[in-house]
Amino acid sequence: MTSEDFVIGYLRILDEKNHNADTVRLLGSIVDTSKDGLISYAEFQAFEGLLCFPDALYKTAFQLFDTNGNGMVSFQEFSEVIQKTELHKKIPFNLNSPFIQLYFGKDKSRLVSYSEFSQFLHDFHEEYAIEGFRRADKNGTGFISILDFQEIMSSIKSHLLTSQVQSHLIEAAQLSQGAGSRVSFPYFIAFNSLLNNMELVKRIYLNVTNGHRTQEVSKEEFMHSAQAMSQMTPLEVDILFHLCDILHQTGRIVYNDLYAIAPEQYFKQITNRLAEIHAVSGPEDRGVLIQILESTYRFSLGSIAGGECVY
Asked: So what family is this one in (predicted)?
């Protein structure tokens, strides 16, 4: 079948009459590993098998950027895909930055393997967030507006945001930085670092409570354990407790608070579902394929321009 048959006819992700051709082609190319424009039954079966891997999101993201199917990603392939995203149109990334040169070489001729690309994609999220901060900080003050903070987090770091965190970004920043104030660069970095390390935060909590998940923990108790176990900073601890205060305003945290904040909830939900897949037999089972393709785009920095889903 063609990419259009797969994306529009089978998955019904995009509207038949109102869709972007690039979106269809790129979505289809994740499954079309031969990159000949057609999806064979063998390729479809291989895609089903790929979904069972624990690193399925990274693998599908790699296939999205490996547009010629040679098992490597070039700078040209990466830049062509990124420049088609809504995110790049909203917050352009400097494709001539030193960061890009470190991965693709000064002359951008270096090819990146899957394992290297998985690290690149992880680091790219962090670099893109800093790039977004720089662009919002037009006067170089080291501060951005709270609305800019919300925009950067929702656009670039959406894969780290649970619904609870996303709906309270402004409130959390105001609680930490003061109502009507601006967000400092240290706060911005600490906020992202906290969300990136929520599994460590859970271990610190369980260390304080000796494994009990309903015991309330004060900031002082948590800080003491954090300093003994890790390099978690006082600012990160402040942000953690501000986020938890928004949820229940007790000044203490319990394990459920961490579960509500942790991006692991998002990744684990997908991973658990994928682990149960054996075969997708018909259109009634297309939901799981939609989920992984959607997740790939969310994980790979937003959607392709004109790629609004219709379900």
From this structure: Belongs to the MICU1 family. MICU1 subfamily.
